[in-house]
Amino acid sequence: MLLTEFHRFLKREDKERLLGQRGTVIWLYGLSGSGKSTIANAVERQLHEHGRFTIILDGDNLRTGLNSNLGFSDEDRAENIRRIAETAKILAHQGIITFVSAITPRAELRQIARDILGNDLFEVFIKASYETCEQRDVKGLYAKAAKGEIPNFTGKQSQFDIPENADLIIDTETTTLEDSTSQLLKSISQRISTTH
Question: Where do the domains of the chain lie, and which CATH numbers do they carry?
Answer without folding.
Answer: 11-189 (3.40.50.300)
